[in-house]
Design brief:
With 329 residues, the chain is an all-alpha fold. The protein contains eleven helices and two strands; from the N terminus they run ααααααββααααα.
Length: 329
């Protein structure tokens, strides 16, 4: 009796391999656009400095931090795009987490945009020398809100619906049956762990870009002292990110403790320190500070409110994932 080759298992789900390839190509394109932004920003600054002799030029600090962020996004999108084309489980998990973060930050950003827009329009009207008509302001509101809604709501929503589909999940598990590193940690915990890890990677950039400015319980550290605090915080957050991935209970406690300490420190600092003095220590030019001062809602009190809201959301999320850190998990 001859040995018959094993019959391949027929998937009981709807195969989404083709759509995984389509979404993977889109993600690679997004990564390429993010990578392209880095040289375009540098080239734009060179052109502005030569044509306008300085005015309107973005500060070096902002160029460095923005370039680092775009570069990190480029690496991420290209990596998950490749993984999506190959139907890898880790790519689906990472893109699903990123879509959630993208959507939540987009909703908060749109709310901030709605609060800040009156001050922005008022500043634009002052610069132009004449006020805009209510109709023009309404049209600008609609156009800008529509564009931002597409970028920060619609796009992450589409990614979220696709990668959250049970058919996509089953397709990736069928085509990639091997256990991956993203399978060893619950997705809600893995998302927070990776966010802390990314912050750890970007923290040293702030030392270079903004001269080590660090809010510390009512004072603003800068230079060597601030740089040491930023690097120390970076090391602690990196350790906590690893501990969260390992589902260690002490890492959960450490994460909530560090968050509370940082929130209290920042709130106390902005109660005693003017927001624009803080920006001045970061090296922002006076022309940018004068422009920011025209925004009526942008002040130390608003920063305190934002820190309280952020702290409550942060604490709520940590309480939500506490169930994954039971003894013996």
């Amino acid at each position: 009796m001859t040995n018959q080759p094993p019959i391949a298992a027929v998937p009981v789900h709807t195969d989404r391999s083709t759509w995984l390839i389509v979404f993977g190509v889109v993600e690679i394109i997004l990564g390429a656009l993010c990578a392209l932004m880095v040289p375009l920003m540098v080239l734009g600054q060179v052109i502005v400095s030569r044509v306008q002799n300085g005015p309107g030029q973005m500060p070096v600090q902002q160029v460095v931090s923005a370039a680092a962020t775009y570069l990190l996004l480029a690496i991420f999108f290209i990596a998950v795009g490749y993984g999506s084309i190959r139907a890898r489980r880790w790519a689906r998990a990472l893109m699903l987490m990123f879509a959630w973060i993208w959507l939540i930050c987009g909703i908060l950003g749109l709310g901030f945009f709605c609060v800040m827009m009156p001050g922005i329009y008022e500043t634009m009207a002052k610069q132009q020398g004449h006020p805009s008509t209510p109709e023009a302001l309404a049209m600008m509101n609609v156009i800008l809100f529509a564009i931002l809604s597409v970028i920060y709501i619609l796009m992450p929503g589409v990614f979220l619906l696709f990668y959250g589909s049970s058919h996509v999940k089953a397709t990736c598990e069928w085509k990639d049956p091997q256990t991956r590193w993203t399978d060893r940690c619950p997705l809600p915990v893995l998302g927070l762990s990776l966010m802390l890890a990314c912050g750890t990677a970007l923290y040293p950039v702030t030392v270079i870009a903004y001269g080590g400015v660090f809010p510390f319980f009512g004072i603003v550290l800068s230079g060597l002292a601030g740089s040491v605090m930023i690097l120390l915080s970076s090391a602690i957050w990196g350790y906590l990110a690893w501990g969260l991935y390992k589902l260690r209970a002490n890492a959960w406690w450490g994460t909530i403790g560090m968050g509370v300490i940082y929130m209290i420190s920042t709130i106390i600092t902005f109660i005693h320190v003017d927001l624009f003095d803080f920006y001045r220590k970061m090296g922002l030019p006076e022309r940018d500070l004068q422009m920011l001062k025209n925004f009526n809602h942008l002040n130390s009190e608003m920063m305190v409110v934002m820190m309280i809201i952020s702290g409550l959301l942060y604490s709520g999320y940590l309480l939500f994932i506490k169930k994954y850190f039971r003894t013996g998990s």
